[in-house]
Design a protein that fits this description.
This protein is an all-alpha fold and about 120 residues long. It has five helices and no strands. It folds into two domains: about 70 residues, no CATH class; about 30 residues. Helices cover about 70% and strands about 0% of the residues. Helix 2 packs antiparallel against helix 3 and helix 3 crosses helix 4.
């Protein structure tokens, strides 16, 4: 059976300890809670950065990047936009999307006409 939590120990320089104490006081939290919160946020940011770069290198899709980073697609898209990561969208991708979308457009027109009657 796997443990749900593990104790992790590390040595920290005094400057980080001083910063931790300030954060603990401001957030009114104990050391463990503060460290978990900060580490969780840092890992979240690392995942966004890492998987956005994998997307930029063409190694994975945007949807896969979002899935691996455990965020909604819109959040990964927003991250990529804010960090000026170019879209990996080729002319072939556009042509394919147009071919797929055209039948839906025709169906939508027929449905709209039927609704007006």
């Amino acid at each position: 059976m796997m443990k749900k939590e593990q104790i992790v120990g590390t040595r920290l320089p005094q400057s980080l300890i001083n910063d931790l104490e300030k954060i603990e006081k401001a957030d009114q939290c104990d050391r463990s809670t503060t460290l978990r919160k900060l580490l969780s946020g840092a890992i979240h940011e690392w995942k966004l950065d890492y998987y956005a770069k994998e997307y930029a290198r063409g190694r994975i899709t945007m949807a896969r990047a979002a899935e691996e980073a455990a965020v909604p697609l819109w959040e990964m898209l927003d991250y990529a936009r804010r960090h000026k990561i170019p879209a990996q969208y080729s002319l072939e991708d556009l042509q394919h999307d147009i071919k797929v979308a055209l039948p839906f457009k025709k169906t939508a027109r027929k449905t709209n006409r039927a609704l007006r009657l």
